[in-house]
Recover the amino acids of this structure.
């Protein structure tokens, strides 16, 4: 769990090209949003290792199957759990809620993270559900 400076990078761990484009537009639009960030934060226990899995794969299994938060952003004492999703909808809403619960369970039960979805297209249903559930929806 390595915090790094909030700035444009050559590469963002585990981000697909479409997610990277959204993230970099966010960086340009909101250059002071965070001081530091954590990329690809692994949470939870991962899937059970299947029987007869070769030892070299078994050692990697947990990390490969654990849920991963795209970005955790820190600004002062504030913390955001960020899901980046092109055409963000129900999956993004579910993921950010899921990650929040796992963060509280496995990392810091006293944390008060803000939940954020970064997307490229505003969908009215997503906006409605985010507002109802206190999730910040950012379209860039």
């Amino acid at each position: 769990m390595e915090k790094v400076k909030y700035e444009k990078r050559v590469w963002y761990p585990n981000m697909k090209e479409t997610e990277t484009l959204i993230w970099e537009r966010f960086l340009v639009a909101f250059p002071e949003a965070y001081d530091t960030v954590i990329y690809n934060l692994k949470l939870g226990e991962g899937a059970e290792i299947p029987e007869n899995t070769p030892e070299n794969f078994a050692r990697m299994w947990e990390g490969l199957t654990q849920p991963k938060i795209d970005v955790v952003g820190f600004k002062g004492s504030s913390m955001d759990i960020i899901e980046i999703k092109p055409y963000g909808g129900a999956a993004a809403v579910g993921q950010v809620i899921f990650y929040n619960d796992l963060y509280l369970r496995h990392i810091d039960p006293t944390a008060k993270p803000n939940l954020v979805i970064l997307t490229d297209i505003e969908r009215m249903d997503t906006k409605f559900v985010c507002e109802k559930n206190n999730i910040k929806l950012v379209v860039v």
Notes: The longest strand covers residues 68-75. DSSP finds four helices and six strands in the chain. The helical segments are 17-29, 55-65, 90-106, 124-132.
